[in-house]
Amino acid sequence: MSTLVMKFGGTSVADLKRIENAAEKIAREHAAGHKCAVVVSAMSGVTNQLVAWCNELTVDHDAREYDAVVATGEQVTAGLMAIALQKRSINARSWQGWQAGIISTQAHGRARIQDIQSQPLLDALDRGEVPVVAGFQGISEDGRITTLGRGGSDTSAVALAAALKADRCDIYTDVDGVYTTDPRVVPQARKLKKIAFEEMLEMASVGAKVLQIRSVELAMKCGMNLQVLSSLDAPIGSELPGTLLVKEEDMLESHVISGVTCSKDEAKITLHAVADKPGMAASYVRPLANAGITIDMIVQNVASDGLTDITFTVPRTDLSRALKALEGANLGARDIVSDDKVAKVSVVGIGMRNHPEVPLQMFETLASNQINIQAIGTSEIKISVLIDEKDAGKAVSALHAAFELDKIA
Amino acid sequence: MSTLVMKFGGTSVADLKRIENAAEKIAREHAAGHKCAVVVSAMSGVTNQLVAWCNELTVDHDAREYDAVVATGEQVTAGLMAIALQKRSINARSWQGWQAGIISTQAHGRARIQDIQSQPLLDALDRGEVPVVAGFQGISEDGRITTLGRGGSDTSAVALAAALKADRCDIYTDVDGVYTTDPRVVPQARKLKKIAFEEMLEMASVGAKVLQIRSVELAMKCGMNLQVLSSLDAPIGSELPGTLLVKEEDMLESHVISGVTCSKDEAKITLHAVADKPGMAASYVRPLANAGITIDMIVQNVASDGLTDITFTVPRTDLSRALKALEGANLGARDIVSDDKVAKVSVVGIGMRNHPEVPLQMFETLASNQINIQAIGTSEIKISVLIDEKDAGKAVSALHAAFELDKIA
Questions:
Q1: What are the φ/ψ torsions at residue A250 (nearest 5 degrees)?
Q2: Where are the domains of chain B?
Q3: Residue B235, pLDDT score
Q4: Which of A57, A77, A81, A137 should we substitute to test contact with B (largest number of B Cβ atoms within 10 Å)?
């Protein structure tokens, strides 16, 4: 008998029919003898309405009141889900954040879970009950309702799974797993049965919006098996139906590359002919940092005549602010040019640690497709290139084929 | 400086515009130097939606989960109202039932307030804050959310006013006070400046749906001044704009009659020629009581030949069940006839205690309008007659004029 935490996102509880459907899945796991704790999001659309009301009154609303208002979305789903489970003769009850002992920081609207006083929930599981916990929320030390920020229900689920020493945390969503790349772009994309946490983090940060990053980080830290699967289809068979996120050492046979991702959220800035001297990097990073703008890729060319060209990327939405900040900083550049028609295409895989040929293979594939590389960035398990936005689809398809991701079983 | 509890019902907080409008009224009282505590209902329509969801899942839903779901309606309004007040530079915060220390019984869906641990709210008032309390809800001893039943926010407000030792409890609603009769039926109806609790109770029980009866009973018990007024119109002037409910001894000059009411919710049943013997009354009341059906007016005629006719009224919606229960009880009646085209018209007034001519005047008025009386019921401050439903409007108008209610200043 294992303990499972099952989390259902907004689209999986969007209406009563979907709630009933989710209850069926829970009932099946419960009947199979598992101890099940459930975490639910608000019915999709509900949170948006509540947020809109707060903003309509005033954009400068009190985050504590915002939290009291928006936390109701999950409270409703938790009660309805408990009723749907009771209808299936399961001894279920709803637990709000404050009832479930989910203690958070006081950073309203973006609180972090500090502790889960899990004994009451453990006792409930021991009695054969199915606790249905309202996700996304907690209670601060001074007794106010807090919320964890958008997507926080994933984090609630993983934190709860860790507190309950669960064997697995299943995240039910509207996709049936993590794919080698976006199936809408590359029809040959394959669902991964397993992916390492590190890979998922690299993939999440470059555009795969399956799981909230914080929840993946937390699962990695706790060593919690995390499965992403669809709430809409397929009964539970002998095999896990979704994608399982595991520790690197639990990847029995890792692929060299697990995925190709594409992000069009960035813009490129180039400073031409700036002085190549100590402190130069800090001098252009400083005004951006002061403006709260994150820099991603940075390329600095070899200097000639004591002058060098520097290229870096910033979030596309911050481009005009970034240019203003740089112009005001008096960097001595001959000129500053920008381009917001760029895409960042990345290949991700823990296997590349042992496969030094990966960068070569990537660059050759792009070259043979006449795609020019404007910048390169790497991490231990990722290589990213900045290319012209119009080449993005072609690049992703070519890399997906070159690394044989369409052949993953 | 006085302490006020201001309660806003569902139509008074139906949307953001109305919430802002209510916030204006609170801001005005606050600026006038009063300590103000606010109680809010759910935005109108919200509770109905939440209840419908519970019922759609199963009509046999767990009342504890029902409470967790429907209590969110008031939680949302409380948060939004706090934001609307803060926007007006008022130091406001929302308090849910469990935060405000509103301890209730465990009778979920129809809980009663047992205690209000009011110190935190008193401290907040002393700091100049405006607490906005979610009405209709409390917390049981075992830490579950409870609700007080439909209209329970009125009760929340009165109980809170008592706990805070408020000088007055203002109930803002969609009518501007208590009228001598329904203004839609009798255009000459006048708004009462004052009404005694006892009168209001008699009027509420016969159709005036201005205040929840429990809240009036509670206010009477606590001696709390209770004002009914409109949230939609008129600024606050020197005079109280609504109707004030007061103790009988505080009615400086009481009218003989304060109101005429009409109820069409009843049906009449007559048992013809039943034996006139001890225990007869019990024999027909028992099957109805067993079926959970309430009897209102009862008329038993003088017996002749040891046989008598008995007439009584039951709620119209229970008529067919009542007839079935009576037929099954084998009462030995010659026949049982029923009529659901009846109306109960009542005159109410504490003044009638000292005016024995009231019944005569009532009966003469009806007689001169050719209205036949089918049954009569009385209390110390009320006389009710059962008449043909088609005569109801005429009877109310005639009585309203006869007792000069159109001349109340």
A1: -90, 0
A2: 3-174
A3: 57
A4: A57
> What's the per-residue H, E or C state across B224-251?
CCEEEEECCCCCCCCCCCCEEEECHHHC
This model of the complex carries an ipTM of 0.83
Dump the DSSP string for A93-106.
EEE-TTTTTEEE-S
| A308 against B127, higher pLDDT | B127
* Closest Cβ opposite residue B16 in set A53, A75, A87: A53
3-state secondary structure of B191: strand
Does A146 reach chain B within 8 Å, measured CB to CB? no
| CA dihedral angle for residue B63, residue B67, residue B69, residue B72, rounded to 10 degrees | 170
Least-confidence region, from A22-26, B90-94, B198-202: B198-202
CB < 8 Å to B65, chain A: 79-80, 82-83, 86, 93-94
Q: In chain A, what residues touch B144 (CB-CB under 8 Å)?
A: 99
Strands (E), A213-330: 226-230, 243-246, 259-263, 266-275, 298-300, 307-315
A69 in helix, strand or coil? helix
Say whether B19 and A79 touch across the interface (CB within 8 A): no
A143 contact residues in B (CB cutoff 8 A): 99
pLDDT, mean over chain B: 91
Interface size, chain A vs chain B, as Cβ–Cβ contacts under 8 Å? 103
**Residue B397's pLDDT is what?**
96
Which B residues, 56 through 75, put their C-beta within 8 Å of a C-beta on chain A? 56-58, 61-62, 64-66, 68-69, 71-72, 75
Question: Is the CB of B66 less than 8 angstroms away from the CB of A83?
Answer: yes
CATH class for domain A3-249?
alpha beta
Contact criterion met (CB < 8 Å) for B75 and A75: yes
- Tokens 């079983």 belong to A409
- Please answer whether residues A207 and A316 qualify as being in contact, where contact means their C-beta atoms are separated by less than 8 angstroms: no
pLDDT at B25 over 70: yes
Best CA proximity match to B13, nearest among B173, B159, B239, B228: B173
Which ranges of chain A have pLDDT less than 50?
Answer: none
Mean pLDDT score, B4-26: 96
H or E stretch at A134: strand A130-134
B51 touching chain A per CB within 8 A: no
Give the separation between CA B243 and CA B228, rounded to whole angstroms: 5
pLDDT, position A330: 83
Bridge partners (DSSP) of residue A307 are A275, A304
Q: What is the DSSP string of B349-395?
A: -GGGGG-TTHHHHHHHHHHHTT----EEEEETTEEEEEEEGGGHHHH
B96 contacts A61? CB cut-off 8 A:
no
Residue of A72, A87, A144 with shortest CB distance to B72 = A72
- Both tokens of A105, joined, read 């920081």
Is the minimum CB–CB distance between A88 and chain B shorter than 8 Å?
no
Residue B319 clears pLDDT 80, i.e. is over it? yes
Residues from chain B contacting residue A86 (CB–CB below 8 Å): 58, 61-62, 65
The burial of A202, by beta-carbon neighbours within 10 Å (0-12 exposed, 13-18 middle, 19 or more buried), is given as: buried
B3-174 placed in CATH 3.40.1160.10: yes
Is a pLDDT exceeding 70 seen at residue B254? Answer: no
Facing A83 at nearest CB: one of B61, B79, B84:
B61
B254 min Cα distance to partner chain A (Å): 45
pTM: 0.84
Query: Chain B residues with CB inside 8 Å of A71's CB?
Result: 75
The two tokens of residue A188 are 């040959």
pLDDT higher than 70, residue B393: yes
Q: What is the mean pLDDT of residues B126-146?
A: 97
* A98-112, B143-157, B387-401: the lowest-pLDDT one: B143-157
* Radius of gyration of chain B measured on its C-alpha atoms: 24
Helix axes A213-222, A197-204, angle to 10 degrees: 170
